[in-house]
Amino acid sequence: MLKGDILEDFLIENEFGFYCAYGNFYIDPKYPVAKAIISHAHGDHAVPGHRAIYATANTIAFMQHRFTKQPLDSYIHKNYRESFTVGDVVISFFPAGHILGSAQILMEYKGVRYLYTGDYKLQQDITCEPLEYVKADVLITETTFADPAVIHPDPIEEIKKLNSTNLNIMLGCYALGKAQRITNLINTYCPLKTVYTHHNIAPIHRIYDDKGFVKLNYEIYNRKALKDGQNKVYLVPPMTFHNYFRAKNVLRVFASGWKRLQNYNDMTLFISDHIDWDDLNNFITEVEPTEIWTVHGEGIHLKNHYVGKIEVRNILK
């Protein structure tokens, strides 16, 4: 197929989400639509109510856990690297390295390859499928941490900070993806510590145990867990962490790449499941795009960095 021209309106953002008129589908829509292509199962990318949902098997597993009223026949499972057509657009999923089941979405139309990354990371994480590099003419990338001032530290060295104390720790983290990665890191690099999970995190751990790549060692939290002994780490979701800001006899730690979420804690833990500035640029080098369209963040640093080299624009403009 001869390569065509890049269509500036190939993917646009409207009140429902990212819409492709050439295939008549949405990517990660915020509200129910007829056809939804879902990159991963986090709540800001996956919602219920769609008539047809295209996603990987593991993303569907998490959505089925969360959205119990969603009809099972609305899910359309697609494997990584399996091509399928929606409207006039050929689509393929490739691992994004963000969480278990997360996918980059490659869309091919009239000889032009448009790659929507969703959320992704290059750092090693054996609890999910590792990111794969895909060549594309247009890279549609998240820019959550697209700032030269943001460089994520080594997650192994970060998790080893927990070894500096025998006191029990209340560790805030997102229930899907982050909690499982943290559990595996603690199991591996803090072997003297016992991991306890909040009751909202435990079901996600069980799905990872069933469908993932490593066995997670943990116990379910009970009221007596942190009252006796030492070297215990209690994983809690963000809302629980913020509600228990006066928790006694525990150290408060929150796993995130955001500096603001490290404020007022007893220890910093900069572990992010998003790319930082260096990894973003390494990724761009591998993809070799002609244009970069930015979503989910601030793209001005990227635009300035590639001025005169690669056209960079926000998808809204």
From TrEMBL:
PANTHER family reported in the protein's UniProt record: BLL1145 PROTEIN, CLEAVAGE AND POLYADENYLATION SPECIFICITY FACTOR FAMILY MEMBER
GO molecular function, one term: exonuclease activity
Tagged with keyword Kinase: no
Protein name as annotated: Exonuclease
Keywords of this entry: Exonuclease, Hydrolase, Nuclease
Alphabetical list of Gene3D superfamilies matching this protein: Ribonuclease Z/Hydroxyacylglutathione hydrolase-like
Source organism (scientific name): Sphingobacterium bovistauri
Family annotation (InterPro entries): MBL, RibonucZ/Hydroxyglut_hydro
